[in-house]
Structure formats: structure tokens, C-alpha cells
Amino acid sequence: MEVILLQTGDRLFEYEIVRLLGRGGFAAVYEARDLMLNRRVAIKQLLLEKTSHQKSVRRFVQEARVAADLEHPNVVTVYGLRAKKERIYMILEYLPGGSLQDMLKQRGALPKNEAIKLITGICEGLGKLHAKGIVHRDIKPENILLTADGRPKITDFGIAHVPQAAGGMALTQAGFQPSTVICSSPEQFRGEKLDTRSDVYQVGEVLYHMLAGRHYVDINAIETQAETLGHNLKQEVKLYMLIEKAICKDPPAGLPALRKKVGGLAGVIEKALSKRKEDRYEDVLDFAADLWAAQFDPTVGR
Length: 302
Description:
By secondary structure, the protein is α+β, with helices and mostly antiparallel strands.
């Protein structure tokens, strides 16, 4: 069945669609107005039929349940799930600040104090997840939304590992899951079992991006290097090998320059981005604590 997107002015339950905010491979997100409560909301539409994609629907339901159960100021609030004509919709709070990715595209590198404040909020939200045994597995700027006053909120739990004790529905497997490849931790890229230290790695990536103005993997340079082989299977293999080397083996090339810019904070980031998870912070809250301490003690994180 052809996917039918909602249009501006459409009525869906007690909501009126205002505009399409974005669309991915499996879902579309809209801004809408709650006609009964007179407030703005976001509506996430699963772009699959309930009857023919039951596992995807169950994952969608699990995502909503996880967010609804957390009730944390740094996690997006879910208001409910609704279904109509073989389609399912998640109703969420509307966040007018857009995504962290939007902010970074507009502003580039952020001031040190602002970056630390944002990452601390992300770590506090993740700390609530980790306390329940949940591993997000897809922390990246696109999945961090901002309130009107700039408070970060974690969203998109679609590929999170959720234990049954926390309401998990035995849907996700340990190891690599479909996500942005360059945002993967080394163990995620290799398809190994993941734990909370994989999220620590991804938070380190986000902080690096905020302070340096770009991701630590220069994907454009890697693609250019691979293109010297022409457009064929050898190029694809070479591209994979170069990405694997950047994620799993090489330290971030920009760390020395970042250290000159932000001092001891670079050491904290370097520890979070350790290739061996045993060398990283065990806990995102320990990572956040060291970020604050490093502003006053340059030996922290070394």
C-alpha cells in the first residue's frame, strides 16, 4: 500500500496538522495543534501497515513505552499512542528549539560552557535510561531535541536495547543495529555486544562535534580517498576498510588541535572515545562530572 503523508490542515483525532517536520525511512514527524487542549504537539507516524509489519509496530510501541516511563526533564515526553486505518501514531511534546544537528549546522562550533551544559543534560537523561538497564545505541545530534530555552532532550528509542524488566519486548539484538555508521562505537561497528559504555562513546562524539564544529571522522576525506579506485566493488570495500580504521583503530586526528582550544576537556573526550570500552568511563554521570572538573583542573581525564 502506498504511504500517504498527512497534509497541512488535515484532522487526525483531536489534532490538526500544521506542517511536516521531517521524514525518514520508517516514520514521518509533524507539528500539530491539539484542538481540545490548545497546545502544540508533535505526531510521529509509522510509515508501515500494522498488519504486514508487526515487528516494526511492536518496536514503535516499545519506543513510546520507554519514553513514557522515564519521565525525565532531558527525555522527550510521550503523550500517547493512537491507531487509525492500519496506521499507528505517537503523540509527543513539541520542541520548538529544533535538533542539536540544526544548531550545529547553523552555528558551527559552540562555546565551551554552552557545550558542557548541553552534554551534562544529555548525560543526566541517559543516566536515567542506564539505571533501568536501557542502552540507547543511537545518540547523535539528530536525536537530541531542544526546548525553547535550549534544554536538551533525548529522543528516538527505536533501536534501544530494553531489558524485559524495563518493559522490553525482546525485539533488538545485541551488537550493531541500523543507524548512522560513523556515529557507531567501535564495538557497535564490529557487531559485538553493547553496554552503557557504547552510549558513553557516542556522547563523547557529540561533545567533540560541538566543540570542534564537525564529527571526528572526516567522511568526505574518506570518500575522496576511496574514489581513487573508481566506482566498483573495490571502492566499496576500500570505503568500508577506511571507515573501520577511523572508528575502530585511529585516535581522532583533530584531538591535538582541540586540546589547544579547550585544554583539559580534550583529555576527558579522549577517554570517552577510547577504542577499548574498558578504557572509557563506566558511567555517563562520571563522564559529566569530569567535564565540570576539567574546567578547573587540567589533569582530570589524563
